[in-house]
Amino acid sequence: MSADTFAENSALQNTATYAEITGWGKCVPPAELTNDDLATFVDTSDEWITTRTGIKARRISHVNTAELAALAAKRAMAAAGISPEEVDLVALATSCPDTIVPNTASKVQQLIGAKNAAAFDLNSACTGFLYALQNATAQVRSGMIKKAVVIGAERMSWWVNWALRETAVLFGDGAGAVVIEASDKPAGLVHAKLGCDSEARDILEIRGFGTDMDRYENPPSALDVHFMGPDIFKRAVRAMGQGSETVLKQAQLNVEDIDLLVPHQANLRIIASLQKQFKLTDDQVMVNIHNYGNTSAATVPIALCEAVESGRVKPGANIMTAAFGAGLTWGAGYIKWGERVTPVSTCDEELPANDKSAKELLSIAIKHCLNQ
């Protein structure tokens, strides 16, 4: 290491005490599966789904997880005004990797041209984006890196058993990303509390996959998201609430100081319970579950991106976020927004063209699941 490089790194460690969010982007595939579409092959209705979940539609991807993640990342990088070569880290939160070996983040790194970046996958299910953001933030704040792209991307439709109403109605596909950069301004993820309620890890799981399965004697005929809804609801509300209270104390903030809550979009009732607990108005809570369903690790960054795009995030805003997922992982964070609310530039790229409807994209999977 040259003397100049050592001096530069030392200066960074002494001055870059924060990891400001400077860019944001999302990628939601165009094919929409509505509740009425679901009702044509599952015993359900728009009324049944809406009253229980708040979901009206979800997106079904015609591309893999890496492509969703890469486009979200490119849009975030354009918003931040940084080049691919400047990125030091690609952190991908996903429970739907395209490949396990090699990791999917390496494919994203390749697609966005971030040839100088390290790349890792992180699976904490729906809490994954918060876990990844905390990890990348810690690296920036320690002076180890300067710039990172943090992504939550999921293709949950690949896991779903379309014959099971309780889970078929819940999930969708999409990706969201942020760019964080070293800064001496008090901005970015300032405080976070992460945890895991592993005592009940079996109430939310994807069965029949991984090295725990019987590979040769009884291979699974279909994957299945095992989901104990009522228990998950209670644990999610408790964990997200307690995590948020802890973070507020860490930040020495009162509920009245929060400008916007960006919660995990799993169920409208869970969001409403959290809103009631903290006595927040509708204007203080970001909700978009009706459009996308539960996109797992992608819900928080997609919602954050849409909040910025719609003008709900002002310069210097105090943002709380909270999530809960399989494991049972949970987390909450306090984000101090910086000054930038308008992108430096935009990315004109789009996903490859798709002429199929959501039902057409799922036709083989639906037929397979219904015939089990």
From TrEMBL:
Keyword field? Acyltransferase, Cytoplasm, Fatty acid biosynthesis, Fatty acid metabolism, Lipid biosynthesis, Lipid metabolism, Multifunctional enzyme, Transferase
**Localization per Swiss-Prot or TrEMBL:** Cytoplasm
Fetch the SUPFAM superfamilies from UniProt: Thiolase-like
Location of region: ACP-binding: 265-269
Q: Entry's InterPro entries?
A: ACP_syn_III_C, ACP_syn_III_N, FabH, Thiolase-like
Q: Which residues form the Beta-ketoacyl-[acyl-carrier-protein] synthase III C-terminal domain?
A: 248-337
Q: GO MF annotations for this entry? A: 3-oxoacyl-[acyl-carrier-protein] synthase activity; beta-ketoacyl-acyl-carrier-protein synthase III activity
Family annotation (Gene3D superfamilies): 3.40.47.10
Q: Give the enzyme's EC designation.
A: 2.3.1.180
Q: Which residue numbers delimit the Beta-ketoacyl-[acyl-carrier-protein] synthase III N-terminal domain? A: 120-197
- Kindly identify the residues recorded as the active site: 126, 264, 294
Reactions this protein catalyses: malonyl-[ACP] + acetyl-CoA + H(+) = 3-oxobutanoyl-[ACP] + CO2 + CoA
Pfam families the record matches: ACP_syn_III, ACP_syn_III_C
Single biological process term from Gene Ontology: fatty acid biosynthetic process
Pathway where this protein functions: Lipid metabolism; fatty acid biosynthesis
> Which cellular component terms (GO) are annotated to the entry?
cytoplasm
Q: Which PANTHER family match?
A: 3-OXOACYL-[ACYL-CARRIER-PROTEIN] SYNTHASE (PTHR43091), BETA-KETOACYL-[ACYL-CARRIER-PROTEIN] SYNTHASE III 2 (PTHR43091:SF2)
What is known about what this protein does? Catalyzes the condensation reaction of fatty acid synthesis by the addition to an acyl acceptor of two carbons from malonyl-ACP. Catalyzes the first condensation reaction which initiates fatty acid synthesis and may therefore play a role in governing the total rate of fatty acid production. Possesses both acetoacetyl-ACP synthase and acetyl transacylase activities. Its substrate specificity determines the biosynthesis of branched-chain and/or straight-chain of fatty acids.
Q: How does it assemble?
A: Homodimer.
Q: Can you tell me which family this protein belongs to?
A: Belongs to the thiolase-like superfamily. FabH family.
NCBIfam families referenced in this protein's UniProt entry, alphabetically: fabH (TIGR00747), PRK09352.1 (NF006829)
The record's domain comment reads:
The last Arg residue of the ACP-binding site is essential for the weak association between ACP/AcpP and FabH.
Protein name in the entry: Beta-ketoacyl-[acyl-carrier-protein] synthase III
Provide the species name: Thalassotalea euphylliae
**Gene encoding this chain?**
fabH
